[in-house]
């Protein structure tokens, strides 16, 4: 799995999907190694359909310490 600061968590109320650039998104035809910032603006969460703007950095949503 990629570093937490490279992963983005869906903010959908019941979702919790995490976009991991090391995995990409097969359903959305996003190849492995694609950073979140390079996803198309119309990309949607493969689980709940939320837009890209609904995602936040995993490192920010789950601080360690």
Explain what this protein looks like in three dimensions.
The chain is mainly beta. The chain has a domain of 38 residues. Helices cover 6% and strands 12% of the residues. It is built from one helix and three strands; from the N terminus they run βββα. A three-stranded antiparallel beta sheet has the order 2-1-3. Strand 1 and strand 2 form a beta hairpin. The protein is globular.
Q: Which spans of ≥5 residues are poorly predicted at pLDDT below 50?
A: none
The proportion of residues in beta strands is 5-15%
- What's the multimeric state? single chain
Helix proportion range:
under 10%
Supply the number of helical segments.
1
For the termini, the CA-CA separation is 20 Å
Class from helix and strand fractions: mainly beta
Strand order of the largest sheet: 2-1-3
Q: What is the CA-based Rg, rounded?
A: 11 Å
Mean pLDDT: 90
Q: How many strand units?
A: 3
Judging from the principal axes of the Cα atoms, what is the shape?
globular
Organism: Desulfosoma caldarium
Protein name: Rubredoxin
Family: Belongs to the rubredoxin family.
Keywords: Electron transport, Iron, Metal-binding, Transport
